[in-house]
Request: fold
Amino acid sequence: MMAAIFAAEAGGDVTLFERNDRLGKKLRITGKGRCNVTNNCDLQEFLSNVPVNSRFLYAALNRFGTDDTMAFFEDAGVPLKTERGKRVFPVSDKAEDIVSAMKEQCRRAGVRVIYERVRGLRIEDGVIKGVFADGAYDFDAVILCTGGKSYPRTGSDGDGYEFARRAGHTVTKILPSLVPIVEDGRLCASMQGLSLKNVQLTVVEKSSGKAIYRDFGEMMFTHFGLTGPLVLSASAHMHDLERGKYTAEIDLKPALDEKTLDNRILSDFAEFKNKDFANSLGKLLPQKMIDAVIRLSGIAPDKKVNSITKEERTALVRLLKHFSVPLLGFRPIDEAIITSGGVSVKEINPKTMESKLVAGLYFAGEIIDVDAYTGGFNLQIAFSTAVLAGESSAWG
Ligand SMILES: Cc1cc2nc3c(=O)[nH]c(=O)nc-3n(C[C@H](O)[C@H](O)[C@H](O)COP(=O)(O)OP(=O)(O)OC[C@H]3O[C@@H](n4cnc5c(N)ncnc54)[C@H](O)[C@@H]3O)c2cc1C
Reply:
C-alpha cells in the first residue's frame, strides 16, 4: 500500500494486486492488534536494531525515516503515542486505524486495487513487461512486495521468493525469526501457562560459553518450550538453532545479587524451619515452578528446612540465578513474526530498490534479505523501502 501510494503520488498509474479479499490482513494483527508502527529513534539506533544488512537501508531510511512515518500517519488522521522502548502506536491502540488510513491514502492517490493472486512476472529480454494474475497484465514497472513466509494465513506464504528466483535472483536461506523456541526435554511443559515478569534471559552458546543474548522482561513457559517478548527477541540472535547449540538461562531474581538472595532464602527458611523443603518456597517462587525447582535443586523434598546445609542453599541460589533450559530448535516458520533471509541485497540497487538483473522490477518490504528486532523496526523497513521503490518506479 505504501509503495502504491507513493508511486501514484509521483505520477504513476498504479494497480495494486492483493490475493486476499481485503487489504492489510497482516497489518491488522501486528503489535497484538495495536500495530507498533515504527520506533521513535534516530538513524544510528535504528540501524543497530537491524542485525542483517543494515547498510543496505541507508538511502531508504534517509528518504523516508521514522519521523516521516509518524508525520504520514498523523497527517492521515491517526494520532500516535510513544511507549516504552520508543515503540510508536496509534493512540487508539487499534491497528485497524493504521489500515484504514493507508486504504484511504490509496484511494485518494487514485490507486486501482485488483483482488487477484499474482502467479508470475512477465519478463522479456531482461525487462519487466507486467504480471500474470487471473489474466496477463501489462506494466512498465512492477514492485514485488509479497512479504515473507510467516503467518501464511495472512496471505504472505512466500510466493514472491519463487517469482524472484525465476527472474534469476538469489534468495538467501529462509528461516523463522522472532519465533517461539522448543525446549530439549520436558522441563517447560511441566510449567506450561506460567508467565514470568521481570526476569533476565541469557542465551548461552555452549561450545564457546559466550552469552549471545541477554535482556530483562517477560517470558512464558508453554507445552513445547518458551515464548513471550524476551524469547522472540532472543530468537533473532540465534541463527540455525541446532539441538545442543544453545541453553537459555533464566535469572529468576535479577534484582537480587547472590548474597542478597541467600539472605532472603535464609529468612524464609527461618520462618518455615520445621517444615519440609517442599513447603518452604511459596513466598519465593510461583506455585507452578516449585516442583521443577525442587527436582533440580538436588535437595530431598521431605528434608526438614532446618537441616538444609549451606552448600545445598548455595546450590539453590545458583539454580534460581541460572535456571537452565536446553534448547532444541525453533517453532515452525508459520509461527514466526518475521522471516529472515530473502532476495539478496547484492542484486538490488539500494538507492532505488530496482533489481540489478531485471529492468523495471523493484522490491520492497520483508521479501528483501533484511530483518530487524521487535520494536516497530520491521514495519518501518517495509515503509522506507516501499516509498523508495514507489517513487523510483514512477520516475523510471
Ligand atoms: C503476529 C505479527 C505481529 C507483528 N507485529 C509487528 C509490529 O507490531 N511492528 C512491526 O514493525 N512489525 C510487526 N510484524 C512484522 C510485520 O508485520 C512485517 O514485517 C510487515 O508486515 C512486512 O510488510 P510487507 O508489506 O513486506 O509484507 P506483508 O505485510 O506480509 O504484505 C504482503 C501482502 O502481499 C500479499 N500477497 C502475497 N503474495 C501475493 C500474490 N501472489 N498475489 C497477490 N498478493 C500477494 C499478501 O496477501 C499481503 O497482503 C508482525 C508480524 C506478525 C506476523
Summary: The first strand starts at residue 15 and ends at 17. Residues 2-174+341-395 form a domain with the FAD/NAD(P)-binding domain fold (CATH 3.50.50.60).
